[in-house]
Amino acid sequence: MNDFKFALRQFQKSPGFAATVILTISLGIGANTAIFTLVHAILLQSLPVSHPVSLYRIGDLDDCCVTGGYENDNGDFDLFSYALYRQFQDTTPEFEQLAAFQSGQNMMNVRVGNTKAKAERTEYVSGNYFSTFGLGAYAGRLLQPSDDVPGAAPVAVLSYAGWRASHAGDRSVIGSTFFVQSHPVTIVGIAPPGFFGDRVNDSPPALWIPLNAEPVLEGETSILKQPGSHWLYVLGRLKLGVSTVALQSKISAILRQWLATQPMYTTNGGDKEIPKQHVVITRAGGGIQNLQQETGDGLHLLTWISALVLLVACANIANLLLARGTSRRAETSIRTALGAARSVLIRQMLLESVILAVAGGVIGIAIAYLGARTILNLAFPGATQLPVHASPSPFVVGFAFLLSLFTGIVFGIVPAWIASHSDPAEALRGLNRSTGDRGHLPQKAFIVVQATVSLVLLVGAGLMTKTLRNLEQQNFGIVTANRYVIHIDPMGAGYNVKTIGAFNERLEQEFSALPGVKSVGIALYSALEGNNWGEGVFVQGHPAPGSEEHNGSSWDRVSPHFFETIGQPVLRGRGLTEQDTATSQRVAVVNQAFVKKFFPKEDPMGRHFGNMDQKYAGDYEIVGIVADAKYNNPRVEFRPMYFRPLTQFNQNFKEQQMEIAESRSLFPNSITVQFVGDAAALESVVRRTLANINPDLTVVSFKSLDYQVADNFNSERLIARLTGLFGLLALVLASVGLYGITAYSVARRTGEIGVRMALGANRTNVVIMVLRTALLLVGVGLALGIPIALLGGRLMRSQLYGVHAYDPLTLFIAVVALGASAAFAGFIPARRAASIEPMKALRIE
Q1: Which band of pLDDT confidence, cut at 50, 70 and 90, is reported for residue 232?
Q2: Which of 70, 197, 410, 801 is the most buried (most CB within 10 A)?
Q3: Region 573-584 average pLDDT
Q4: pLDDT tens digits for range 648-682
Q5: Is the peptide bond between 314 and the residue preceding it cis, with omega within 30 degrees of 0?
Q6: How far is 440 from 415, CA to CA, in rounded Å?
Q7: Residue 131 CA to chain centroid, in angstroms?
Q8: CA angle, 353 as apex, 347 and 359 as ends, to 5°?
Q9: What does pLDDT average to over the chain?
Q10: Are strands 95-102 and 106-112 parallel, antiparallel or unpaired?
């Protein structure tokens, strides 16, 4: 307690020193705690379910959402049809329970009573979904296997967050009827608080619906009974003592046996691919790892960056403590001469550093809370009911406390040890009579470390900033200015295959007549919204591609003025027109990448191709070629793509699965308008127009095309901004550290400088002498930092786009920024040294 009181008195004597140390450590601890809060919440947290350690998933990759044929070139199966799920369920007694659930999620029209319909996020799940997780209802009951049988009345479970947000916690919704996709569905219960679903997601489902309700809600476009439609993840609770290795081999064998019975996997040489098909059994206590896989690399990178910032902060603190310890050498020498034990001196000084570190850690937790909230807003803009919380958990708070304690001990022990080893005789001699600076190598070493790490962080920030700029400013092949995208769900409003054509026609007429609208493009999906449809292409007159040939192509359905609306020019032939009707020749417009892949040495105009199978190779006639544009992944090269009219239904398909896919493609999900005027006014007009067409037709989302494109780069934007912030913070800390050590050196060498000036040295000589010492330290840091920064660039290659890991311009700018900051930080005390009056300096001793 006496040591504690002594430490507080020391802080009162030097409040500036204490405040600087606390602020420095709080920034370092705060940055690390904020990042660790997200790492813990996203990468390390288990689902809030019973015994998550016993949950295992059949599959290991994030493949979404509905696919047919073989999924991956290496034979790794991760998605399964309903029929295949039931096969696993019947043949794997190693699982206590085995549940299936939708790999993606739906936005469905939900109406309660006479209220206006609202778009809600839903997920189809098996009847044993909640019991597999070991969950109980908050109110009512959860889904049961009896709810998930053909002919059962459709029911649903509300999420707790959705119940609170949309229904104000009204328990009377239990037992009430909601109209989902215009079909009555009974709400049987509310899921427990904290359960957000089977994965960490920025928009978790509001409703869980049994799988066997899918044919009722989807009607003629149902895929539940299609054995070739793989759209389900499978997860189960493993019995105690079961070997996952043996189970993995068993399920892989079951998969291969099942595939051999399905014609779609054995035709066109597909039977040769069956032997390499397999599954991977993975732990699923953290849920399906979609978000973890998407953000894992970025979070790990930010963890290393924040750790480097903490290293710079700690080096700064160590320098401050060393300077303070050196300035107290007279005091410690006198105390030692009067009989104070060195262990007591070390304990007192170490306690001071620990108190400062813990105080900085407490403030750092507050900074971490604000920082984590800011990072979440950057990472998930517009997210609702996000299951990742910015509040540091007790585990994270414990991490921050231990980190603070560790920092205080490690970076306080060396200064305390050096200061306690003062020679008592020095108390009777002047301590500032120095003509050299060789006795402070630890302080110089810390400055070198700060300069080295700061350069590495600045280079990393530069690379990520250039990556973001390259992504955002690349040629997408479309025009985004004054374009707005409205997402809708016609199927949810009650339209079917027979009525969708008239709806599409009216939709284009109504929107084209709106004031300020220059053109309207309706599509199955719009550019860069994160959607993609694709199948294999078979060209008439070409041999059928082998099983190992990559003949896939993306495709979309669009209205006649779609290309004009998004600024994708027609290069040859024509675009789609009103003359492309249901009874006219089936046509397609292809992009340049399609021509390059399938007609590298031929003229594609007038040629025919088809999809799904070689027997359909004559289905579509190529009538035009459009410029390449990016529709799905802006990080990859232009994909082969073709466009079909919304008006033409291919009746050649005989397989039911193909008919269903063809039917689903007729329903547009996006309207893109080119509009000149106030966007806020447009949104209200859009909602009113849709309501006039059909009151049940809801706006799923309304956004500018600029925003939709920018939404693809949230992760890169987050990393670029944080690396830039951390780099700037490291630069400031390094500059402050350099200023502090240079100022301290000037103060300690006041007498020496006075003698030099008395003997004829001018002010310029003094400035150069002081500045040379400071810049030499930074120069050593740069010499060490440049190869480390180049190595760091190589390690970051997976995060970079359009920039080389060894970017000379970025490195040059970082070196100049650090050099300029060092020169400025060193010039201030150098100028102060040059203003010393020789006689006053000589009297100091």
Answers
A1: very high
A2: 197
A3: 96
A4: 999 888 777 788 889 999 999 999 999 998 888 89
A5: no
A6: 11
A7: 31
A8: 130
A9: 87
A10: unpaired
> Could you give the C-alpha distances from 82 to 57, 87, 89, 435, in angstroms and in order?
16, 9, 10, 84
Q: Are 733 and 450 in contact (CB under 8 A)?
A: yes
Q: Enumerate the H helices of 550-704 as residue ranges.
A: 562-566, 592-598, 656-664, 679-693
pLDDT of residue 327: 66
The mean pLDDT of 741-748, rounded to a whole number, is: 73
Helix (H, G, I), strand (E, B) or coil at 703: strand
Q: Is the pLDDT of residue 421 over 70?
A: no
What are the CA-CA distances from residue 589 to residues 139, 574, 576 (Å)?
Answer: 53, 8, 7
Q: Mind giving me the DSSP string for 224-267?
A: TT-TT-B-EEEEEEEPTT--HHHHHHHHHHHHHHHHTT-HHHHT
Q: What's 385's DSSP letter?
A: S
Closest CA to 313 of 21, 719, 720: 21
CB contact at 8 A, 557 and 645: yes
Q: How far apart are CA 653 and CA 719, in angstroms?
A: 47
C-alpha radius of gyration, the chain, whole number: 34
In this structure, what DSSP letter does residue 384 have?
A: S
Sequence-ordered list of residues with C-beta below 8 angstroms from that of 282, at least 6 positions apart, any chain: 56, 57, 59, 60
Which among 469, 399, 475, 366 has a CA at the least distance from the CA of 724?
Answer: 469
Per-residue exposure over 32-71, b if at least 16 CB sit within 10 Å of its own CB, e if not: bbbbbbbbbbbbebebebeebebbbbbbbbbbbbbbbbbb
Q: How far apart (Å, rounded) are the C-alpha atoms in residues 650 and 789?
A: 57
CA 686-689-695 angle, to 5 degrees, is: 115
Q: What pLDDT, on a 0 to 100 scale, did the predictor assign at position 435? A: 44
Residue 773 tokens, joined = 């010492």
Q: How far apart are CA 757 and CA 618, in angstroms?
A: 95
Residue reference for tokens 């597909």: 270
How many residues would you count in the chain? 845
In 10 A of CB 362, how many CB atoms? Answer: 16
Distance, C-alpha 304 to centroid of its chain: 16
- The count of other CB atoms within 10 Å of the CB of residue 840 is 10
Which residues lie closer than 8 Å to 485 by C-beta, 6 or more apart?
526, 529, 670, 671, 672, 701, 702, 703, 704, 705, 708
pTM of the model: 0.82
Whether residue 229 contacts residue 68, with contact meaning beta carbons closer than 8 Å, is answered with yes
Residue 537, H or E segment: strand 533-539
Distance of CA 745 to the CA centre of its chain: 46
Q: Phi and psi for 447 in degrees, rounded to 5?
A: -65, -40
Using CA atoms, how far apart are residues 405 and 392, in angstroms rounded to an integer?
18
